[in-house]
Design goal:
6-stranded antiparallel beta sheet; 3-stranded antiparallel beta sheet; 8 helices; alpha+beta; globular; 29% helix
């Protein structure tokens, strides 16, 4: 389901019927440049550290964020996500960006919270670690969270397709309930059931500027990046402010279970008072880490 324009009923209908909705061209090209620049600075810091430790002989300055890590790491893994190095005002601005929030209002109402969950994903070439088997996000959140309405906003920072590891989703799988699964040694959840025997998964190629919204029960995954460049993306989590809409006791209990898990503090992105400033958010995040 594509949502090229801000048609709230169509966005809500696609999300409800399919478990996801794709907003094409939601961002202007320039909107994502601050986050890409923050990633470039983080890579520059990593390069200086590796050269200083003798782990690399060349910092590969001048390379793009798609190629510099490949040359710098020379086959080493970086990890499943790279969150802390990119924490900053650029991330805060993206989380509260109207391109995301305006569409979330069609799904969650006027009072919306960023719940603190975010991941900056560097999918390196041929990395098994960042090839995510089919799963539901509530499998990571834990049993009891399946009745909450937790929206993931998935934002590619480069163009993505089947070659470099775009997302694959199973339309309608959000109606299956919470499936059984367990973490492997690589910390990735593996669903016990062969979900592709039940329904067909479809690839979701996306351009930089698109946003994919999906539910915490929508089955999705991504395959190995078979290109020589890094596939960068960021995913963000949002919930409705319980004080802003009627929810039943089952959903209220699911939200309580979800927020019982340790996480980075979140902040309101829509509602009275507008988004919290980055300075205030940073202070609360620092207090939690101390």
């Amino acid at each position: 389901m594509s949502a090229a324009t801000l048609d709230a009923p169509a966005i809500a209908r696609g999300y409800r019927d399919n478990g996801f909705v794709l907003a094409r061209g939601a961002f202007a090209a320039s909107d994502l440049e601050p986050v890409r620049a923050a990633i470039a600075r983080a890579i520059d810091d990593l390069a200086r550290q590796r050269v200083a430790r003798g782990e690399s002989t060349d910092s590969h300055a001048g390379e793009s964020i798609e190629t510099r890590l490949v040359k710098l790491l020379a086959g080493e893994e970086l990890g499943r996500s790279w969150d802390e190095p990119v924490f900053g005002h650029e991330l805060h601005a993206l989380i509260a960006h109207e391109a995301i929030v305006s569409r979330l209002r069609a799904l969650l109402g006027e009072r919306i919270n960023f719940d603190g969950g975010y991941h900056v994903r560097p999918k390196l070439p041929d990395s098994e670690l960042t090839s995510f088997p089919f799963h539901q996000d509530s499998q990571y959140y834990g049993a009891g969270t399946e009745h909450a309405d937790i929206v993931s906003a998935w934002v590619p920072l480069v163009d993505v397709d089947e070659a470099n590891g775009c997302l694959w989703l199973i339309p309608g799988s959000h109606r299956w309930g919470l499936l059984g699964g367990a973490r492997g040694a690589d910390l990735n959840i593996r669903t016990f059931e062969d979900v592709e025997r039940r329904a067909k998964a479809i690839p979701i190629p996306m351009c930089r500027g698109d946003i994919l919204f999906f539910t915490n029960l929508t089955v999705h995954g991504s395959k190995i990046n078979r290109t020589p460049r890094v596939r960068w993306s960021i995913d963000l989590r949002y919930t409705a402010d319980p004080a802003g809409r009627d929810i039943d006791e089952r959903e209220r209990a699911s939200l309580a279970q979800y927020f019982a898990n340790p996480r980075t503090p979140g902040f309101a992105v829509s509602g009275a008072g507008g988004p919290e400033s980055f300075q205030a958010w940073r202070k609360r995040c620092a207090a939690q880490r101390s």
